[in-house]
Structures are given as structure tokens and as C-alpha cells.
UniProtKB/TrEMBL annotation:
Site (Lowers pKa of active site Tyr): 85
GO terms of molecular function: Delta4-3-oxosteroid 5beta-reductase activity
Active site: 56 (proton donor)
Binding site for substrate: 141
InterPro entries: AKR, AKR1D1, Aldo/ket_reductase_CS, NAD(P)_OxRdtase_dom_sf, NADP_OxRdtase_dom
Domain NADP-dependent oxidoreductase span(s) in chain numbering: 19-301
Name of the protein: AK1D1 dehydrogenase
Underlying gene: Akr1d1
Homology family: Belongs to the aldo/keto reductase family.
Source taxonomy: Eukaryota, Metazoa, Chordata, Craniata, Vertebrata
Amino acid sequence: LTAESHRIPLSDGNSIPLLGLGTYADPQKTPKGSCLEAVKIAIDAGYRHIDGAFVYFNEHEVGQAIREKIAEGKIKREDIFYCGKLWNTCHPPELVRPTLEKTLKILQLDYVDLYIIELPMAFKPGEALYPKDENGKFIYHETDLCATWEAMEACKDAGLAKSIGVSNFNRRQLEMIMNKPGLKYKPVSNQVECHPYFTQPKLLEFCRQHDIVIVGYSPLGTSRDESWVNVSSPPLMKDPVLNAIGKKYNKTAAQVALRFSIQRGVVVIPKSFNPQRIRENFQIFDFSLTEKEMKEIEALNKNVRYVELLM
Ligand code: NAP
């Protein structure tokens, strides 16, 4: 079984692989080239979906890995599903296309498969990606999300993004886009935190009703980096229920958590730059959880986010 045969349809006629490789790693603490190696190993292991962003500062490595694998004859461009993200400082509509073009230049690719608005709020445009005032407070920017969305639609029409979506949007923000007069394309997906401790039942149901795929980030409970993660919530990978169920199938807690999500129709994008764990996270298509086990895992929901996004 390969991830290729495990895609789910998107509302615009395209489809998305249920499993992708997350690529966020703190650039200060991660050796250069780690992302390049990880993406190449992932592609060899069967991954076809890669989740990245300009603000991860390693998109050049992702692009290089994809291009090397194409040159090797291992894959074709159309086999790969790359998701890129529009950062907060680039919400004004006139900045959207140039920002995506910059990402494409970094990747050295002609298009991304999915381009998403990373967060629903905007920062002041400019060189600083995290603009702050003299008191250390973020400088926000008034923009109209609907106008940003129209610029996203234009990127799809121009063929620079095959599909367009959003991230970290709540129901109200999704409705604002979907009820926009003259809407051309609705968001195909919403990338949000989703895992056994934060199962998002209400948002998941709303998105199901509207044909919006949920892409679950931090599906393993994050790297627990205290600089941006709420570590007062216990480590997901140590959970006794996930570990006990794993034992039954000869699987790890990580594999059980990922399987739980894909079995609910949630796309997962676990990050690993470790060859063994990259391969481990891919081995989730050869077992399935019973209805009772799914319920047991659903009951682990604590309704607490690891990623509080206090900005
Ligand atoms: P995650 O995927 O839940 O967890 C990553 C951590 O788990 C890393 O420390 C990784 O270490 C470790 N790990 C990986 N596989 C493992 C396994 N089998 N067993 C035990 N530990 C394992 O966390 P995340 O990076 O926060 O989320 C995943 C991706 O979602 C990101 O990389 C990014 O692409 C995306 N994301 C998006 C947003 C957004 O706002 N849209 C926010 C957060 C994340 P090793 O690398 O050493 O294996």
C-alpha cells in the first residue's frame, strides 16, 4: 500500500494524500540540509504530500529534494502534492500573487498543489515577518480577508496554485469566505491543530457538511518546544490508551494517533527529520482501528491546544 492510493477528493476536483510530511523545524536548532534529506527519505518511503511554508525558512530544501527526486526518475512533478502558505505580512490583495511567485522561485517549481492563508489575521506588511512596536507588541494590519481570498482565487486561475485553502480559521471566518458575494472557489481545506487530545468535533462536522477537508497539524502532539508550545498539556505520545492499543497491533503510539486521524477523514502531516520515524509514520495503511477503539481514542479529547497561537 502506498499513500498514493490513499487520497481524498477536494471540492474543486483535485485530491489530497491523507498522509504528508510536515517540515517545520526551528531554523536556529536544525542543521542546514536536514529538511532536504528528510524530504528525499520521505519520497523514497512513499510520501507524496509535503507540507511547508515560506516562514519555515527551508522551502529551498523542500524544492531541491523534489527536483532531485524528479531528476532521478523516482517521481514526476504531478505525483507530488506540495502545500505552501501565505504569511501574515502578505494579506493585502496586491501582495498575494507576488508572494506566491516568490515561494515558487524558492522552490524552483511552476506551481504549488495547495496554497493556504496561514492565519486569519494580518501583520503590518514589510521586511519584518513578526513586526513589533517599541513595547514588543505585534503590529497588526487591517485587511479584508475576503479581498485576500479573491487574490487567492486569481492565483488558482493563473495556474500558480492548483487548489486554495486556509489554515487556523474558525467557523465564523470560514463562513465569511463562503458567504462572500461572487465567491468563485470555496476553500478546499482548513489546516488546524487536530489529534487525540484536540479532536475538533464541532469544526470537523461543520467542515464535513461543507466539503472542506481538515488537515490536522501537530498530529503527534508537537515537538514540545517550550518557545511556542503549551507544554502543560501532557505528551500525547506517552498516552496509556494509545500505547495499549498500539501493543495489540504491534504499532507505536504515533502510528495509532495517525491512524485514528486518517480513519476520521482527517489528513495528517507529521513532522519528522529522523529516517526511522519518517518510515514509521508511513506504516499506517496496513491496520485499522475498531469502532470501539476509535471511540476510546475520541474520549481522550481534552479540548486543550498545544499550539495556542497567542499572537
Ligand atoms: P508533530 O508532527 O505533531 O510532531 C513532531 C515531533 O514529533 C517532532 O519533534 C518529531 O521529532 C517527533 N516525532 C515524529 N515522528 C515520531 C514518532 N513516530 N514517534 C515519536 N516522535 C515522533 O508536530 P508539528 O511539527 O507541530 O506539526 C506537524 C506539521 O504541521 C509541521 O511540521 C508543519 O508542517 C505543520 N504545522 C502547521 C501549523 C499552522 O499554523 N498551519 C502549525 C503547526 C504545525 P523528529 O523529527 O526527531 O522525529
